[in-house]
């Protein structure tokens, strides 16, 4: 752990990216304290005000207001909550499914491996967003359903990486030795092989954060993600699309946040990969 | 054989998807004030009164003859609608991939050859940005700046060359970044091989080493990626088509999902899987053409 932190401290880009992600996490956690206004409070008299406008109460709308007079800054702050929650939930559930299937597939080999890998191939045949859209359309919009759908559509990335890592270590001498010593299969899998597949697994998970945040926003953008009452970056972009020529600020800021968060997750993932898998 | 298994599995997934919809597909097909009798008649017509295994066999029979039933929304055969929208998507994906490949391959190779230089760093950062920007936001920004503010291109629509530039570019950005990054890493890997050292040691000019030896070998993993991505895009250019009102499969998908046109969605899901499998087969063939060792091995 110490060696890992030391190596991480030498990678400035990854560190800056991590710092930004931690800030976003704090913004999401403390949104009620940080947001200057209620993100759902509507005031038609204050609609489409440009960034920096001071309203009659002396309150500054730093990022302007949207078509219903809601404060864009407050909505951007609250929007981070859904993005982080959905990405974290989907990485956790999708990661757990992928890890277990990858371990089973790689270690068991034979027919279990064949069946599981054909399952991966079948799912790969569907475009990611098409599958996610279809499932949300069937299950209905809710945060939990979006998390579930994104977990089910993303587990294959982990499973493939974990499987190939298991294959690369399962015939190594230390595994053979524990096997010869009569250690049970489960113990070999979880105590001896699992630690070796964690590095590539963590790298995939960090890249998945970026993919999932964009996927969630895409679903919300099409009106099929989280219910409309929740402020999300994707839904803000959908609102902003209709007012692009009159009120560019509605669409610019949530889009920039999405891009920055995804970029930082990718930069951090890149740094992690260099540290954990230097070859 | 593997392709057939994938197709059978994919069609089973599509079958299950349509069966887990809350509510009765037969009543969805009819207007809200349909009588119980009409619904029952529709259920019989759709074969929903049969046992589930019989429904599945009929469904497979229909797929084999490419009969996917009618779209609820438009009352036309789903296959006809898909065939009408497919050329627009194919055109868009073709140009997006051309843009991505033509820019990304030289860029990725250049970054690898100049490893750790400023240009390598710039290419890597740009590629990461390309992979992080949500494509629909990029599309919206292009519409705002190029179409609305500068009035250089039409905001959306289909028909002329000027209509295709922005959507193709929007769709290309992610692919461009992905291919450039992959090309960079595969070039770096090839550069470390002994035969490259030998080629240099025997005095070949660097340009010959790069184009004759490195290029071809670094291209192999990139071709797989290009194939996979093309397959995904044919069914997945959903958001780009939606933003630019491009009348392709993606646009049809969003419309069908919004209208809860389940038979249409099911057909789209199956067709995407078929397209994906066919493209994968083509990639395997392309592999064998580029790398003769694969033919010998198999």
UniProtKB/TrEMBL annotation, chain A:
<keyword id="KW-0813">Transport</keyword>
<feature type="transmembrane region" description="Helical">
    <location>
        <begin position="128"/>
        <end position="158"/>
    </location>
</feature>
<feature type="transmembrane region" description="Helical">
    <location>
        <begin position="82"/>
        <end position="107"/>
    </location>
</feature>
<dbReference type="InterPro" id="IPR000515">
    <property type="entry name" value="MetI-like"/>
</dbReference>
<feature type="transmembrane region" description="Helical">
    <location>
        <begin position="201"/>
        <end position="226"/>
    </location>
</feature>
<dbReference type="GO" id="GO:0055085">
    <property type="term" value="P:transmembrane transport"/>
</dbReference>
<keyword id="KW-0472">Membrane</keyword>
<dbReference type="InterPro" id="IPR025966">
    <property type="entry name" value="OppC_N"/>
</dbReference>
<protein>
    <submittedName>
        <fullName>Peptide ABC transporter permease</fullName>
    </submittedName>
</protein>
<feature type="transmembrane region" description="Helical">
    <location>
        <begin position="247"/>
        <end position="269"/>
    </location>
</feature>
<keyword id="KW-0812">Transmembrane</keyword>
<keyword id="KW-1133">Transmembrane helix</keyword>
<dbReference type="Pfam" id="PF00528">
    <property type="entry name" value="BPD_transp_1"/>
</dbReference>
<comment type="similarity">
    <text>Belongs to the binding-protein-dependent transport system permease family.</text>
</comment>
<feature type="domain" description="ABC transmembrane type-1">
    <location>
        <begin position="80"/>
        <end position="269"/>
    </location>
</feature>
<feature type="transmembrane region" description="Helical">
    <location>
        <begin position="12"/>
        <end position="31"/>
    </location>
</feature>
<dbReference type="Pfam" id="PF12911">
    <property type="entry name" value="OppC_N"/>
</dbReference>
<keyword id="KW-1003">Cell membrane</keyword>
<dbReference type="InterPro" id="IPR035906">
    <property type="entry name" value="MetI-like_sf"/>
</dbReference>
<dbReference type="GO" id="GO:0005886">
    <property type="term" value="C:plasma membrane"/>
</dbReference>
<dbReference type="InterPro" id="IPR050366">
    <property type="entry name" value="BP-dependent_transpt_permease"/>
</dbReference>
């Amino acid at each position: 752990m110490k060696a890992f932190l030391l190596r991480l401290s030498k990678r400035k880009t990854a560190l800056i990216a991590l710092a930004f992600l931690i800030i976003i996490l704090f913004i999401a956690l403390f949104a009620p304290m940080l947001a200057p206004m209620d993100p759902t409070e509507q005031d038609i008299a204050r609609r489409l005000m440009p960034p920096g406008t001071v309203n009659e109460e002396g309150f500054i709308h730093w990022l302007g207001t949207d078509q219903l007079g809601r404060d864009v800054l407050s909505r951007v702050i609250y929007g981070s909550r859904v993005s982080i929650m959905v990405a974290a939930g989907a990485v956790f559930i999708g990661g757990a499914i992928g890890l277990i299937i990858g371990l089973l597939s790689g270690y068991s080999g034979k027919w279990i491996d064949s069946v599981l890998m054909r399952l991966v191939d079948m799912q790969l045949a569907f475009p990611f967003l098409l599958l996610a859209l279809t499932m949300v359309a069937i299950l209905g919009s809710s945060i939990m359903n979006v998390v579930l759908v994104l977990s089910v559509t993303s587990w294959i990335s982990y499973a493939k990486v974990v499987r190939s890592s298991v294959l690369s270590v399962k015939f190594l001498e230390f595994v053979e030795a524990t096997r010869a010593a009569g250690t049970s299969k489960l113990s070999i899998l979880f105590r001896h092989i699992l630690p070796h597949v964690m590095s590539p697994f963590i790298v995939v998970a960090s890249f998945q954060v970026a993919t999932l945040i964009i996927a969630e926003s895409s679903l919300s953008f099409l009106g099929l993600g989280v219910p409309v009452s929740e402020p999300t970056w994707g839904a803000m972009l959908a609102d902003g699309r209709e007012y692009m020529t009159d009120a560019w600020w509605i669409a610019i800021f949530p889009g920039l946040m999405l891009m920055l968060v995804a970029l930082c997750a990718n930069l951090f993932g890149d740094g992690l990969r260099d540290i954990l898998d230097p070859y | 054989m593997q392709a057939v298994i994938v197709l059978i599995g994919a069609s089973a997934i599509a079958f299950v998807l349509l069966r887990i919809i809350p509510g009765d597909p037969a009543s969805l097909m009819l207007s809200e004030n349909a009588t119980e009798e009409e619904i029952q008649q529709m259920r019989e017509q759709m074969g929903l009164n049969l046992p589930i295994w019989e429904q599945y066999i009929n469904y497979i029979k229909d797929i084999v003859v490419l009969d996917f039933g009618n779209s609820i929304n438009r009352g036309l055969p789903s296959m006809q609608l898909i065939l009408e929208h497919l050329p627009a998507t194919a055109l868009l994906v073709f140009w997006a991939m051309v843009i991505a490949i033509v820019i990304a391959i030289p860029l990725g190779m250049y970054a690898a050859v100049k490893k750790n230089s400023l240009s390598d760093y710039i290419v890597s950062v740009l590629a990461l940005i390309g992979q992080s920007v949500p494509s629909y936001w990029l599309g919206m920004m292009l519409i705002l700046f190029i179409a609305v503010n500068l009035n250089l291109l039409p905001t959306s629509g289909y028909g002329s060359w000027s209509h295709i530039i922005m959507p193709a570019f929007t769709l290309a950005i992610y692919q461009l970044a992905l291919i450039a990054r992959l090309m960079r890493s595969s070039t770096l890997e090839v550069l470390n091989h002994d035969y490259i050292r030998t080629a240099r040691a025997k005095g070949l000019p660097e340009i010959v080493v790069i184009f004759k030896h490195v290029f071809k070998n670094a291209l192999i993993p990139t071709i797989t990626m290009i194939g996979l991505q093309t397959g995904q895009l044919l069914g997945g250019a959903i958001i780009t088509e939606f933003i630019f009102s491009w009348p392709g499969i993606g646009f049809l998908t969003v419309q069908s999902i919004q209208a809860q046109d389940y038979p249409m969605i099911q057909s789209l899901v199956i067709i995407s899987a078929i397209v994906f499998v066919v493209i994968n087969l083509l990639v395997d063939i392309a592999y064998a053409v580029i790398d003769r060792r694969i033919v010998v091995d198999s």
